[in-house]
Amino acid sequence: MEATGTDGIPLLKPQRILLVEDNIVNQKVALILLEQLGLETDIAANGKEAVEAVAKHRYPLILMDCHMPEMDGFEATVAIRKLEELAGYYTPIIAVTALAMAGDRERCIAAGMNDYISKPIDKEVLQIKINHWLRTDVVYKTQKLRRKVLQPHTNMMLLEGAPINLSDLEEFYGQDQLDSVLQTFISNTEGMLAKLHSRMFEREIWSTARLAHELRSSCAAIGAKQLSRICLFIEQAVGQDDWTEANDSLSALDRNFAILKNFIESALVAEETV
Description:
By secondary structure, this protein is α/β, with parallel strands linked by helices. 59% of the residues lie in helices and 8% in strands. It is globular and about 55 Å long.
């Protein structure tokens, strides 16, 4: 029988937390890192789902993205704090955000969040925050990563001007997990670019900026710095109602993504042929 608190809300195992994130690439990255810390994780794809999850279960910790559609992390945190006030308990909430908007840190605190982690997530910082707020001592698994001897793969990592550093990413995620992350990134980015073209054609300021911001976060998660910078240019241009600059940046984004996609797919094929 499931254990419950005095208010009847089910108590989850201490190591099961809630991740609130709408970006599928960032979800996968966060899940990999949390799994490496030995944590089980439930996922809410937006603030509304997060509030519904907290109403059903009591979590020891929540990782909350700030900028999401339907209900953002700030609104969700306010709603969660109201639920907790009625129920008589309190959950630490850590904002996970690019913190690109002026005043976001202050908004995090004002909404009732306890801490924040910047995107892309740093392993060591995440571990420190988790240890602090869970009052535990989780550590990353220290087993040696299984290295594949991939000469074609290695050659591409050493190419001057390579769009991403596969060696660093392999060290960060582990080879098996990295393949999955990169495949998810390609498929997700293709869909987001199609939406971005549509929104820019219709000159929808908010949704265009939102898509560019989300894509910038995904690019940062795999170290695609050039693509991430271009996404920022689109955000800024749209915010200034400069659609000529925004469209020029979108064309550059298309070209650079094509290069990155070819680079990733070539690396994946090289692994399969060894």
